[in-house]
Design goal:
The complex is a heterodimer of chains A (261) and B (309). By secondary structure, chain A is of the alpha/beta class. Chain A is built from 10 helices and 10 strands. Chain A has 2 domains: 171 residues, Rossmann fold, CATH 3.40.50; 80 residues, no CATH class. The chains are: A alpha/beta (261), B mainly alpha (309). At the A-B interface, α2, α3, α4 and α5 of A face α6 and α7 of B.
C-alpha cells in the first residue's frame, strides 16, 4: 500500500528527565524519530507517555536532557515557539475551541501562516480578504479529506465525540506541520471510529508525508499502523524497535501482562 | 403613557453606557480570565487624556478647528491607552501567568488606584469638559399620538447610536477577522491556542487595547454629559451588577444586562420609589445582581459551570 520512503532522523530526544516535586515522571529517556515515519509511544497507565509528548511540545520543560529537531537543539521552549518550528498536536482530552464552528476552528490553525496585520484586517483591506480566501480554500481541502463537510458551520461543542476528535486532527493538519503529535487519538472511541481514525492517520502520513508521533494505549492499533514503537513503563524506557521486536520483548510482556514474583 | 415612555427611554440610554463599560470587563475576562477591576479607572484615565489634550492641542499649535482638534485628541488618547495596555501586560499580567484568580484581581485593584492617582498627577484633578459637539437640545416625539408627547435628550440619542455602532463594529471584528478569531480561540482554551502558535502576550495587549478603546468611547460619552471627574471611575461599580446579570463571558449578555439594569433602576425609581421614599436607583442594580447570584449564578447568557465528578 505504501510507497513512502522513511528518511533521516529529524527529531532526536536525548536523556530527558522530568519530575514534579518528588515524583519522577520521566527518567533518562532517549529515542529518535525519522522523517515520514509513524512512531508510537506506548505504555500502561501512568507510564509517562503524555509527559513525554508534552516535553516535545513545550508544555513541560524537562529538568534534564535536550531535544534536537533538524539540527536545532532546544529544551526550554514554550508551545508557541515549538509550533513555529513546525510541530502540531492533538489533545487527549479534547481542547477544541468549543464555541466556534468547525471552519473557524480549522482556520485558527492557519494562524501562523497569516501575514496581514491587525489594521489591514480591521479595515478589511484587499490583502486581508485575499489571504482569508486562500486559507479558506486550504481548510476546505482538509474538511473534504476528513469527510466532515456536513458539519462545517456546527459549533464543535455540539458534535459527537468521534467527530470532535476529527476536528482536533483537522486543526493540527491546518498548520501544515512537519511533525504531528497525536495524544491518544483513539481513546474512548468505538471500533468503527477507531478504524476511521487509523485510516486518517495512515492517509495523512501517506499523502502529506507528515511525520507522526503517536501515543496510544491500545496495543492492537499501534502494532498495525506504526513503523517503530517506544515502550515506557514507570517513566523508563523498556523497549524500542519495530512492532515485532517490541512484541517479543520480555520486559514489555511483563509490563503489560504482569509477572509472577 | 408619556412619562412611562420617557423613563423607559431614559433608562435605555443610561443602560447603553453601562453596557459599554461592562463590555470592557467581558472582553478582558473572556480572553485572559482576569476580572479587570480597573475598567472604571481606564474610563477615567482615557477621558482625562482626551479632555486635556483637546485643551492643550489648540494652545500648543494654535489649531482652532474643533473637529480636527477632537480627532487629534482622540488619536492621542487611543495611543496612550494602547501604551497602558502594553505596560500592563509587560509589567503586571505577563509576570502573573497561571496565578490564582484572586491574585490577578488584586493586581487589577492595584492598577485601579495607580491609574486613578497617576491620571490626576498628570492631568490635574479639576473637572474638565469634553465637547465633541453632541447636540444638546431636547426634542419632542409622538406629539400627535398622545398629549404632551415624549421628551428626549438628543445627546442621549446620539450617545446610544454611537454605543450601538461600536458594539456592532466589535462584533464584526471578532467574527470576521483572523485576529478576532485568534482572540476567540484564546478565550476558549489557552493551552490549545498556544499549541497552534497564537502568542498569548500579543493577544492580551490587543484585548486590553480594545478594552481601552471601549473605555475611551464610554469616557467621552459620560464626560460630555457630566464632565470628566473622579466620579467617572465609580461608573465601573455600576457595571459589576451588569456583568453578573448578563454573564461574565457573554458579549450579548453585557449589552442586555446593561439595558435591563438601566431601565430597571429608572422605572423602579419613578414608579416604586414614591412608596419607599426614593433612593432605589442607588441599590436597585445590586439587589437584582444578588437575586441573580442566588437563582442563576452564571448570569443570563454565561456558560453554565458543570463539574464532572
Amino acid at each position: 500500500m505504501t510507497t513512502k520512503k522513511i528518511g533521516e532522523v529529524i527529531l532526536d530526544v536525548n536523556n530527558i528527565s522530568l519530575s514534579f516535586g518528588g515524583v519522577k515522571a520521566l527518567s533518562d529517556i532517549s529515542f529518535n524519530v525519522r522523517e515520514h515515519e509513524i512512531r508510537a509511544i506506548i505504555g500502561p497507565n501512568g507510564a509517562g507517555k503524555s509527559s513525554m509528548l508534552n516535553c516535545i511540545n513545550g508544555v513541560y520543560q524537562p529538568q534534564q536532557g535536550s531535544i534536537n529537531f533538524r539540527g536545532q537543539t532546544f529544551s526550554q521552549m514554550n508551545s508557541r515557539q515549538v509550533a513555529e518550528l513546525g510541530f502540531a498536536r492533538t489533545f487527549q482530552n479534547l481542547a477544541l475551541f468549543k464555541g466556534m464552528n468547525v471552519i473557524d476552528n480549522l482556520m485558527s490553525g492557519r494562524n501562523l501562516k497569516m501575514k496581514t496585520n491587525l489594521f489591514q484586517q480591521a479595515l478589511y483591506l484587499g490583502a486581508a480578504r485575499r489571504e482569508e480566501n486562500e486559507h479558506r480554500a486550504f481548510v476546505e481541502h482538509i474538511i473534504d479529506f476528513l469527510e466532515i463537510q456536513a458539519y462545517r458551520k456546527t459549533p464543535v461543542g455540539r458534535l459527537p465525540y468521534g467527530l470532535q476528535k476529527r476536528v482536533d486532527l483537522g486543526r493540527a493538519l491546518a498548520m501544515e506541520p512537519q511533525v504531528l503529535l497525536l495524544d491518544e487519538p483513539m481513546a474512548g472511541m468505538n471500533v468503527e471510529e477507531k478504524q476511521d481514525m487509523c485510516r486518517f492517520v495512515l492517509d495523512v502520513n501517506d499523502e502529506f508525508g507528515t511525520t507522526i508521533v503517536l501515543i496510544e494505549h491500545d496495543m492492537g492499533v499501534v502494532m498495525d499502523i506504526s513503523d517503530r514503537v517506544v515502550v515506557l513503563d514507570y517513566g523508563k524506557k523498556i523497549g524500542d524497535g519495530t512492532p515485532d521486536e517490541v512484541r517479543s520483548n520480555e520486559d514489555v510482556i511483563k509490563a503489560y501482562l504482569g509477572t509472577t514474583h | 403613557m408619556g412619562p412611562f415612555l420617557e423613563t423607559l427611554i431614559g433608562g435605555l440610554m443610561t443602560g447603553m453606557l453601562y453596557s459599554l463599560v461592562a463590555l470592557g470587563f467581558v472582553l478582558i475576562f473572556k480572553a485572559s480570565g482576569v476580572f479587570n477591576f480597573a475598567q472604571g479607572a481606564m474610563v477615567l484615565f482615557a477621558a482625562l487624556t482626551m479632555a486635556r489634550f483637546a485643551q492643550w492641542i489648540p494652545q500648543w499649535t494654535g489649531l482652532s478647528d474643533k473637529l480636527l482638534v477632537n480627532l487629534l485628541a482622540f488619536g492621542v488618547a487611543m495611543i496612550v491607552m494602547i501604551g497602558v495596555a502594553w505596560l500592563i501586560e509587560r509589567l503586571v499580567l505577563g509576570k502573573l501567568v497561571n496565578q490564582e484568580g484572586i491574585t490577578l484581581l488584586m493586581a487589577t485593584l492595584g492598577i485601579t488606584y495607580f491609574l486613578d492617582g497617576f491620571g490626576q498627577t498628570l492631568f490635574g484633578s479639576d473637572i474638565y469638559k469634553i465637547d465633541v459637539g453632541l447636540p444638546k437640545d431636547p426634542i419632542f416625539l409622538f406629539e400627535q399620538t398622545f398629549q404632551g408627547g415624549v421628551l428626549i435628550n438628543q445627546e442621549d440619542l446620539a450617545a446610544a447610536a454611537i454605543a450601538a455602532a461600536l458594539v456592532a463594529l466589535l462584533a464584526a471584528f471578532f467574527q470576521y477577522t483572523s485576529t478576532g478569531r485568534a482572540l476567540r480561540a484564546v478565550a476558549d482554551d489557552h493551552q490549545a491556542a498556544q499549541s497552534i502558535g497564537i502568542p498569548l502576550s500579543r493577544i492580551w495587549v490587543i484585548v486590553w487595547s480594545v478594552a481601552g478603546f471601549v473605555a475611551l468611547v464610554a469616557g467621552i460619552i459620560w464626560g460630555s454629559k457630566l464632565g470628566v471627574q473622579f466620579s467617572l471611575s465609580l461608573v465601573a461599580l455600576k457595571a459589576l451588577p451588569v456583568v453578573i446579570l448578563g454573564g461574565l463571558t457573554s458579549v450579548p449578555g453585557a449589552i442586555v444586562g446593561g439595558l435591563i439594569i438601566g431601565v430597571g433602576e429608572k422605572l423602579s425609581e419613578v414608579f416604586i420609589g414614591p412608596y419607599f421614599g426614593g433612593g432605589i436607583e442607588i441599590w436597585f442594580a445590586y439587589v437584582l445582581a444578588l437575586v441573580f447570584l442566588l437563582v442563576r449564578p452564571q448570569g443570563l447568557f454565561g456558560e453554565k459551570i458543570i463539574d464532572r465528578v
